[in-house]
Design brief:
Layout lengths: L1 H10 L6 E2 L7 H6 L30 E4 L20 E2 L11 E19 L11 E7 L10 E4 L15 E17 L10 E2 L1 E6 L9 E4 L10 E3 L2 E3 L8 E3 L2 E3 L2 E5 L2 E6 L6 E7 L8 E7 L2 E9 L6 E6 L5 E8 L8 E11 L5
Antiparallel strand pairs: 1-10, 2-4, 3-8, 4-7, 4-9, 5-6, 5-7, 10-22, 11-16, 12-15, 13-14, 15-22, 16-21, 17-20, 17-22, 18-19, 18-21
This protein binds calcium ion.
Length: 351
């Protein structure tokens, strides 16, 4: 089961860039997170409830937003733990109608595998019928839903007169952002309402591996704009990328004065690699990296005989990256610079 789940998370990412091999989760960690179905040890006195490790994520860490809400019935009410309070879509504005979206930032990367839903009492206005659930690592891109279906008008057999708490299970998906899309109401009205929502996590999921994308490959992540002469996974002065006497298979060689722009929508955590010069260059160049307009890396006056310098920059949340190589002397703009083994890294679940 353990290996199977890990395989699932790997398959989900094969369409993007390569993964770094990650050791399997230590067994001890799994055992420490005992499922809540375990009976209380007999040694625990009845007056002290047995500790319960819930697969529900801690709602105190959530940041939630709804596409519509009525004053007094804000979206926070669906995450306050109380069945008495609810989120309700705006009913004052007659133009508001389905679909409504509820966006949940769970505050960290987690192995999400379920949603819990408690309808408002008596299944009144807006009680959800059709829904879709999305999970993503980025706040902007949700792709295809991980689950879709319809909630039933079902009463709780143990709490007469109260709606039943319903759970939706779906394949374990690593993400930080959960979107619940409310498509219709049980009574056919134009409203949406929710007494309580939970997000479940798979506490047995294997760690999520780091994901790495070589920008020289120009595959999953492509430049949105290139100004100037560039060579991907190649040199300009010669066919291979040769820096400090070593040949590198990956990297981007550019003519000084060149700018490369990537729109990455906050999906990556770090830029890694080196900056260097092709053999036989002349003059010095300056390497600069900007994340959302802010300079995050600068290497001034890198001469043709200087040893390549490492790049390791945190860019978490950045939507745009710009890589510039500037000639230190306008006459030297025939020179080239190399972004050696330049890559984007998306951190996995382990630090
Ligand atoms: Ca509530």
């Amino acid at each position: 089961m353990h290996k199977f789940k890990y395989a699932l998370s790997v398959i989900a990412l094969l369409s993007a860039c390569s993964l770094v091999a990650t050791a399997e989760a230590p067994i001890a960690q799994t055992e420490a997170s005992a499922p809540q179905t375990l009976a209380a040890p007999e040694s625990v006195p009845a007056s002290e409830p047995a500790p319960v490790v819930s697969p529900k994520l801690d709602k105190a860490e959530f940041k939630v937003v709804a596409s519509s809400q009525q004053s007094g019935s804000e979206i926070n009410n669906a995450f306050d733990g109380s069945p008495e309070t609810m989120w309700h879509s705006n009913w004052s504005d007659a133009a508001q109608k389905h679909p409504y979206t509820i966006d949940i930032d769970i505050g960290k990367l987690a192995a999400v595998n379920g949603l819990g839903y408690l309808p408002r009492d008596n299944f009144g206005n807006g009680a959800v019928k059709d829904y879709e659930i999305y999970v993503s690592r980025t706040s902007g891109e949700f792709g295809e839903p991980v689950a879709k279906g319809s909630f039933a008008r079902e009463m709780d057999p143990e709490k007469p007169g109260k709606p039943k708490y319903q759970k939706v299970s779906f394949p374990t998906t690593w993400g930080r952002y959960v979107r619940v899309k409310v498509l219709s109401a049980l009574n056919g009205d134009r409203f949406g309402s929710v007494a309580e929502l939970d997000v479940m996590q798979d506490i047995d999921a294997a760690p999520f591996a780091d994901e790495i994308c070589d920008l020289g490959d120009k595959t999953a992540v492509r430049p949105s704009e290139i100004k100037g002469e560039t060579a991907f996974n190649k040199g300009i002065s010669q066919n291979a990328i040769v820096v400090d006497g070593n040949t590198h298979e990956k990297g981007i060689t550019v003519r000084a004065g060149t700018e490369i722009v990537y729109n990455i929508d906050g999906a990556w955590d770090q830029v890694q690699g080196f900056v260097g010069r092709e053999a036989g260059g002349k003059g010095a160049v300056t390497f600069r990296i900007f994340a959302d307009g802010k300079e995050v890396f600068k290497r001034i006056g890198h001469g043709p005989n200087d040893v390549k310098q490492p790049v390791a920059v945190d860019i978490a949340g950045a939507k745009q990256l710009v890589f510039r190589v500037i000639p230190d002397n306008a006459a030297a703009n025939a020179d080239t610079g190399v972004w050696v083994e330049l890559k984007l890294v998306r951190k996995g679940s382990e630090e």
